[in-house]
Target: Large ribosomal subunit protein bL25
Amino acid sequence: MSEVKLAAEPRTEFGKGAARRIRRESKVPAVVYGHGAEPVHITLPGHELLLALRTPNVLLSLDIEGKAQLAIPKAVQRDAIKGFLEHVDLLLVRSGEKVNVEVYVHTEGDLAPGAYLLEHVLSTLTVEAEATHIPESVTVSIEGLEAGASILAKDIPLPSGTTLAIDEDAVVLQVLAAQAEEAAEEAAGTAEVGSEA
Model:
């Protein structure tokens, strides 16, 4: 995982009016907290931060008054209509420190031939990983799975140094028979019974 370097400026003005002024300057108000330190209020360059946040669990290297600090996004607030960043909460991390994060579950391969549906019971997995080696996602094969099959959290291969932070027996994916096919079979069965009578 690569880190994104951002120049941060300390923020002394607070409140709705100050936040609006900051956003008008194409910057985003943010707060950095963690490790028992007092929260630090900063502003970040809006466009660079928006690009960085496209990567899930991005590691940010913040330059705050000449001091470099590592942080990961904890909460991101966006405008509901226009989608611009309103505020970001960042959690301080250290190299080598373990953190709990959610990673996306991707699938590869095809289900067995037939009309089957793949249900994503969980679209993300909570894992514990080193702050500087957080995986963007995990991938699991669904090749040849048929109706009734399920994939549990423990069945998903994780990168080295990453462990599950949820129940290992949690169902992540399951294969279902298509409803239309079942309805057609039931209708055909009912028609056969009706014709025999």
Summary: The radius of gyration is 24 Å. Helices lie at 16-24, 46-52, 179-196. The mean pLDDT is 84. The chain has two domains: 3-93, 100-183.
